[in-house]
Amino acid sequence: MKTTEASNISVCRKLECDEDSGKKNCTKRADEDGSNVVDDDDDTSSMNSSDEALCEMLGFSSLGDIMATEKTTESLSSNHNNDDQNTSSTFEQGSSVTSTSSPSECLYNIPSFTSSEIKSALTQQQLNEDSNKVFSLESLIKRYENESILVLPSEISIPSSTMRKLANELIYGENKYPSDKTYETIHYLSSSGSSEEIKSRRVLTRLENFVSRHEGWYHLCHHTIPSILSTVLLQNEDDDAYVLYKEKLNIKPPGGSGFAPHLDTPSLRLVFGQDGPQHFITVMVAIDDMTSENGCLRVVKGEYNSEQSAPLVIPPDENGNPDAEGRAGAMPLEVADTLMFEDILCKGGMIAIFNGWIPHRSAVNKTAFSRRAVFLTYNLKSEGCFRERYYTKMREWRSGWRATRGAQGDADLEEMEKMGEFDALKTIPRI
After folding, report:
1. Are 7 and 361 in contact (CB under 8 A)?
2. Helix (H) or strand (E) segment spanning residue 15
3. I need a surface site. Which of 29, 90, 171, 403 has the fewest CB within 10 A?
4. CB of 211 within 8 A of CB of 245?
5. Nearest-CA neighbor of 224 among 147, 163, 295?
6. Are 149 and 301 in contact (CB under 8 A)?
């Protein structure tokens, strides 16, 4: 089952350099339906120099910004080391931060927003959209209920440099910050002279279960974001009203597949059934700019608040792969094709809130750079804290399924993942 936005085989254009000969092998990248081949030179034709291209990749407007960020980071690190001598708050790998005044807020430049700051920013956002409209939080909540998604203004965002730092420490600090990882096989067309060859490479596309192992992520996910949710949706400043259910950092590499249309709540409920949370809210924080070209989040705005109001989904296979056909929430393509999906364009660090019933998907990344975003799913604390149990349950579920398929060791497991990967890409609700 192949869609124009969720192709199971992505062919990306890639520029390879032969260090011995200095010869460049130019390859071609196909769009999401695999039919139109485009030239990657278009992605960087506006660059005047390699420095400018590097700045764009890193998310800076100039090399001066990089220098300033390095100096700020050094200063913050120095302050952090001094603070460690005077604070009783500790964070060890695999443990939880119990103090509400974590040094991570300073080290990682993670902002804390007061209720008045949030309300002021939201008021200005409303005035910019309609100067004649009287603003109230009640009207904002009503808008969220009517559209099932709310993109917060840039004043209520996380610095993009902070998000990149947090993401890079996870991606490149595997030994210090272990996490559950998912990989995807990217296929690309490599040209050398008059010959062409389809090659493939395995790339990291997702990290999960990392918040409790990283101080900065812990503070962001357990304090900053819940406080924003409480102010916006519950009109109070309690950062304990919402609890984290699960987290995932999605990495969509150049040529990376789009995500099939789906709903979140059916798959989230499937793990614990009636014994677990029934209502979910997902917070997306963009790490890189999210554009139509790099496969941004796409949603169908509407009043989706229950199973009855949501579009039809495909029943899960009880004996299927928990990361593919065994997972609930996938939408039939004939249903998705009747809906109007809208791009959610965000700058790095911007925050979007959406509920578990809104239909969403994304397209292939057609740019030369990865597109990263973190998706944090919350439930009300009154429904219980299930995060640790969720990951324990998923590990058991995945191990049980693999055992029924005869996986005896790491080699068998890797081969099984490769064989089942493309089928999973067609149906798995991965955002």
Report:
1. no
2. strand 15-17
3. 403
4. no
5. 163
6. yes
Contact of 268 with 259, CB cutoff 8 Å: no
Sole residue written with tokens 């209720």: 115
pLDDT surpassing 50 at residue 19: no
Taking only the tens place, the pLDDT of each residue in 171-210 is 999 889 999 998 888 877 778 878 888 888 888 999 999 9
| CA 396/CA 402 separation, integer angstroms | 10
Is residue 384 a contact partner of residue 277, using CB atoms and an 8 Å limit?
yes
Give me Rg for the CA atoms of the chain. Answer: 22
Where do we find the tokens 């979140």? 264
Using a pLDDT cut of 90, give the percent of the chain over it: 41
Asked whether 261 and 336 are in contact (CB, 8 A), the reply is: yes
Alpha carbon separation from 171 to 166, 205, 210, 235, 341 (Å, rounded): 9, 10, 11, 35, 31
Contact 147, 359 (CB under 8 A): no
Of 48-62, 78-92, 192-206, 270-284, the least confident: 78-92
Average pLDDT over residues 202-219: 94
**What is the structure's pLDDT at 224?**
94
Are the C-beta atoms of 170 and 207 separated by less than 8 Å? Answer: yes
Q: Which range has the worst mean pLDDT, 4-18, 55-69, 191-205, 237-251?
A: 4-18
Q: Decide: 298 and 292 in contact? Cβ < 8 Å.
A: no
Q: What is the pTM of this model?
A: 0.73
- Write the CA distances from 295 to 59, 132, 268, 345, 350, integer angstroms: 17, 35, 24, 10, 16
Residue 327: name the closest of 267, 262, 259 by CA: 267
State the amino acid at position 407 in one-letter form. A
User: In the chain, what is the straight-line distance between the N-terminal and C-terminal CA atoms, in Å?
Assistant: 18
| Residues 264/429, Cβ–Cβ less than 8 Å | yes
Structure-token pair, residue 319: 């004996």
Per-position DSSP letters for 27-84, written without gaps between them = EEEE-TTS--EE-THHHHTT-SSHHHHHHHHHT-SSHHHHHHHHHHHHHHHHHHHHHH
